[in-house]
Amino acid sequence: MAHSPSFPQLPPPPQALLNGASLFLDFDGTLTPIADTPDGVTVDRDLLDLLIRLRDQLDGRLAIVSGRSVATLRDLGLSAFLLAGTHGLEFARPGCPVEAPERPASIDRAEAAFHAFADGKPGLLVERKSISVGLHFRGAPQWGEEAGDLAADLAARHALQLQPGKMLFELRPGGADKGSAVHALMSRGPMQDGTPLFIGDDVTDEEGFAAAADLGGNGILVGTPRETRAGFSLEQVAAVRHYLRQGVPA
Ligand SMILES: O=P(O)(O)OC[C@H]1O[C@H](O[C@H]2O[C@H](CO)[C@@H](O)[C@H](O)[C@H]2O)[C@H](O)[C@@H](O)[C@@H]1O
């Protein structure tokens, strides 16, 4: 894998970090490889078994913290886990209803503007989510700059939070991020009994790394080196799964 010359490769995480951890796991790009489209991703049996064994090993101290909505995470087969969706705006415990704000009308207006922009531009994809909306340009990277300008303009006009992602611009209500999700989950329930360890790949995971560090824990950046609050790194999804697998008895 090519590394940016400007940022040093962080060391791999020691296995001991998992002992006593409250484990916060990003989903896309961390537990599953990036796919061409949002619905090109699945949770395979191996991954599900691994997460269940880890959760049990950690006495329930495992949460998935994603930009996806809780509903989508559940549809993907992750209902058995503590979930924080839409970049920290939604929460759900297994078997319980989702705690989330109302979908604001401004998101519908932004979604309509995204559709108007994407219309007639093959490869652009509008992802409707519970309380947010994404404009994906992985299938048409030539539109990335204009998509970003549009998203920034809509964010300013409708007082929404612009969340850049991987070949993606999302708009969502403000007031939360993955860092606030870590703080919220560390203040109640099983997660409060461990040391936070946040594993993620995307820029939206930086707030999660920062919150974990502020609470005396650690972060593991997945992928290419960059400026980060994480203290350790793993190169790719396969390395994450290998690392996690070492943390549970076979
Ligand atoms: O916080 P995450 O769990 O990492 O979710 C971030 C976004 O992930 C998804 O988009 C990304 O993954 C897609 C599938 O691999 C890929 O096609 C896309 O280019 C990526 O940006 C998801 O669709 C978003 O809703 C999440 O916010």
TrEMBL record:
One of its GO terms (biological process) is trehalose biosynthetic process. Its cofactor is Mg(2+). It comes from the Bacteria. InterPro entries: HAD-like_sf, HAD-SF_hydro_IIB, HAD_sf, OTSB-like, Trehalose_PPase. Keywords: Hydrolase, Magnesium, Metal-binding. Its EC number is 3.1.3.12. It is an enzyme of class 3 (hydrolase). One of its GO terms (molecular function) is metal ion binding. It catalyses: alpha,alpha-trehalose 6-phosphate + H2O = alpha,alpha-trehalose + phosphate. The keyword Metal-binding applies. Pathway: Glycan biosynthesis; trehalose biosynthesis. SUPFAM superfamilies: HAD-like. Removes the phosphate from trehalose 6-phosphate to produce free trehalose. Belongs to the trehalose phosphatase family. This is Trehalose 6-phosphate phosphatase. It comes from Sphingobium cloacae. The lineage of its organism: Bacteria, Pseudomonadati, Pseudomonadota, Alphaproteobacteria, Sphingomonadales.
